Amino acid sequence: MKKVAVLDYGSGNLRSAERALQRVGAEVTVTSDAQTALDADGLVVPGVGAFAACMKGLDAVDGRRIIGRRLAGGRPVLGICVGMQILFERGVEHGVDAEGCGEWPGVVEPLEAPVLPHMGWNTVQAPQDSVLFDGLADQRFYFVHSYGVRNFPLGQDGASSPLAPPKVTWAEHGDRFVAGVENAALSATQFHPEKSGDAGAQLLTNWLHTLR
After folding, report:
1. Can you tell me which residues form the catalytic site (predicted)?
2. For residue 173, what pLDDT band results from cuts at 50, 70 and 90?
3. Tell me, what DSSP letter sits at residue 125?
């Protein structure tokens, strides 16, 4: 049984994430303790609310260092909703430009859509070699957000790199935005797998299978 820590930094659907992970067979600890988060087989970083507030809470529990140390050692991390957004360089919400964790280039900004927030079920366009979305073609996932990453420059055509580009999953609401990223040990989803029924459970199972 894989041990998963859900990082408690004052922002997130902690209990729903905990229950969803338990249902797919993980041993789950909800914690703000750095060593517990570092020692777990997998770390889940949830997030609900404003980007800047989430970053303030993350810094209060040394979350940037925890995420950075895990990734430096190839230890899996999964960000969910705002827990995905804070992995990017910056977030611009309500006129506040806040620094993120900087694991990926890109800016979290308002979606351009006739109706916001984007709330409800939506399909996604995952790459064929996706691990997270294996077996989930044409499935729908549950979104609740008004902000997202509409331009993800990493991995686009340009200078060659010895590193494999991230696998990026997209969705559309008004315009296109990043719905998921798989980048070595770091994975994330804009939607809530813990609220996405059987499809979300399968995605969490797929992630658990990547833990060593």
Report:
1. 81 (nucleophile), 192, 194
2. very high
3. B
Neighbour-count burial of 153, counting CB atoms closer than 10 A to its CB (0-12 exposed, 13-18 middle, 19+ buried): exposed
Closest CA to 192 of 147, 143, 146: 143
Tokens of 186: 């770091």
From the list 81, 93, 109, 118, the catalytic residue is 81
Q: What are phi and psi of 83, to 5 degrees?
A: -65, -20
3-state secondary structure of 19: helix
Q: Is there a catalytic annotation at residue 194? A: yes
CB 58 within 8 A of CB 32: no
pLDDT at residue 155 in the model: 55
45 contacts 10 by C-beta, under 8 angstroms: no
54 noted as active-site residue: no
* Cα 2 to Cα 27: distance, rounded to the nearest angstrom: 6
| Given 18, 103, 109, 194, the catalytic residue | 194
Active site residue 101: no
